[in-house]
Structures are given as structure tokens and as C-alpha cells.
Write a structure and sequence with these properties.
The protein has helices at residues 7-16, 43-46, 49-52, 55-60, 62-78, 83-91, 94-100, 116-120, 156-160, 196-205, 221-230, 257-265; strands at 19-24, 105-110, 128-130, 133-140, 146-148, 182-186, 208-212, 234-239, 251-254. By secondary structure, the protein is of the alpha/beta class. The protein starts with 6 loop residues before the first helix and ends with a helix. Zinc ion binds at residues 140, 142-143, 145, 175, 177-178, 180. One of its GO terms (molecular function) is histone deacetylase activity, NAD-dependent. Residues 1-266 form the Deacetylase sirtuin-type domain.
Amino acid sequence: MPPSTDAAEFQRILRTSKHIVAIAGAGLSAASGIPTFRSGGGLWQTHDVTKLATPQAFAADPVLVWRFYHARRRAILAAAPNAAHYALAVLALPAYRAAVAPDARYTLVTQNVDSLSTRAHREVPSPILEMHGRLLDTLCTGCGHTEHTTADPLCPALGEADDATPIAIEQLPHCLRCGALLRPGVVWFDEIPHHLRAINALVEKADLCLVVGTSSTVYPAAGYAHEIAENGGTVAVFNSERTDDDDFAHFFFVGPCEETLPRVLL
Ligand code: BJW
Ligand code: ZN
């Protein structure tokens, strides 16, 4: 049976849910002007993922990788949360849940590295698990120290050079504690995502899962909604495109999530 599109029925289930989890992906930030990875105009359609988003790529050419992440840091610093981020932030408000889903716990698990959900959640006391790290974090390849910084550029060479101007590795950002090369604080392929223990505990308990703006192609995130459905939980997908892979979902709200989330949740 195809998933339901009945918002009123979804709201009835929302009202009786006790453990709500939202799993977000790049589509959540599309309306903020942040490119997705795989859909139309996505980053991986114009860039080779193996040369940019793996530890091997960084070891082979840290200058190329840093140029790519410098441009992406700059883009998110100029961006603002959109209506979809705010709709999920409202779900995190105790007063909203007291009215709509009494006693429910809610956690946002995001694959996004743009910190836009955190910005929308300011003043809202609800954890956000950023499982693929953060573009605005740097991670020291020597001592492992992580730092969150909005500095732009992170070092003069990245700010001044166009892509044709050579940059020496010594000119890239280095750790103030141990002197080693810094890398972007994101999770690349073949690396272990963050907060897995907390996420697994949430997934085990969840009775309602919102899957927002993700192609569900990257694991482990891609498996969470299936696991929740197998455990008897309800899955509602919010995506601009419908695929047969989503047939396991109970609800599917097709369209831009910056429109569907406020319509269905608020
Ligand atoms: C809208 C919209 C709008 C648009 N409204 N919707 C073979 C089989 C199975 C697994 C593997 C395998 N080979 C390797 C693996 C593992 C690998 C993996 O899954 N690879 C797959 C490609 C097959 N995974 C890993 O390596 C992960 N680590 C791992 O598995 O460790 C081992 C381990 C785990 C657990 C326990 C024990 C051991 C790490 C994955 C790291 C992913 N990193 C990236 C880059 C982050 C840094 C950066 O930004 O540069 O994370 S890749 C990229 O993909 C990014 C994203 O978070 C992630 C997911 O993408 P997302 O968000 O789904 O975006 P899109 O573009 O794919 O989809 C957008 C969607 O939005 C589309 O559906 C649109 O329709 C929709 N949309 N506009 C609503 N307005
Ligand atoms: Zn260090």
C-alpha cells in the first residue's frame, strides 16, 4: 500500500507519540541556498566525492580539500535557517509538545554539517545530534583537539587565493596547541559518525520518525527509519521527490519541506 498523505491522520498519531525522532538531510537546508549532495545541482554531481570527502583524499591533497571546505564554510556563514528548520524547532518547544504531543520526547538527528538547525533552535532546550560533524569545526590531525570557529577565512592563504594560486601546506590552518595540520571537523566516508550510542538508543525507542530531506543513501543514517518501522514505529517522510524505496513509510508528504513541515506540523 502506498504511504498515506493524510495530514490529519499524521497529527492524530503525533498526539499519541512518546518518543519522536527526526532524521534530517541536505534537503532541509536547500531553501537556505545550501546545495544538496545528490539531487539536481548537488555537490557530488560537479565534484568527485573520492577526491574531497574521504580521509585518503585529505592525505593526498589537503590544499584541494581545504579550498572546497573553505568555500562551503563561507556559504553557510552567509546563509540563514529557513521555515523547515523553524518548524522542527517548534516541535522541540516544550509548550508546543505540551499542547500537541503531551509527554513526548523529541530529538533531531541531522546529517547536515551546516549548523542551521542549531541556529534555529537557539533558546530551545532540545539536543541536536549532528552525526556528520560541523563545517565550522576544525579537528587537529595531531592532538585531536576540536574547535568551533566562525573565523573567515581560517587562514590568509585560503581567503586571498583564487583556485589557480598555489597554496603550500604550511599556509593551511595549523593547531595552536601542537602545531599539526588542522582538517575540517566533518565525518568523511569510512569514518565513524558521531553520537552513535545516543542515536541507537533513540532509534530503539522511537515510536514516530520524521525523515526530512534525505536521499537515505548514506549509512548508518539510511537504516534508522527502516529499523523504527520494523520495531512498530510510524515513519513519515518529507521529501521533494517520491521514490519506490519509500513504500515502507506510513506517510509521505511530497514537496519542499519548507512548505510541507509547517503545513503538517503547525
Ligand atoms: C528536498 C528538498 C526540499 C531536496 N525539501 N526535500 C555499501 C553498502 C552500505 C554502506 C556502505 C557501503 N560502502 C560504504 C558504506 C558506508 C558508507 C555509506 O553509506 N556509503 C554509501 C554511499 C553506500 N558510510 C560511511 O562511510 C559512514 N561511516 C560508516 O559507515 O562508518 C562505519 C560504521 C558506522 C556505524 C557503526 C559502525 C561502523 C560515514 C558517512 C559520512 C558521510 N559524509 C558526508 C559528507 C560530510 C561532509 C561534507 O559535507 O562534505 O555526509 S557524504 C554526504 O551524504 C553528507 C551527507 O550528510 C550525506 C547524506 O546526504 P543527504 O543529506 O541524504 O543528501 P542528498 O543530497 O543525498 O539528498 C537530499 C535529499 O533531499 C534528496 O532526497 C532530495 O529529493 C531532497 N530534497 N530539496 C525536501 N526543499
Ligand atoms: Zn593539535
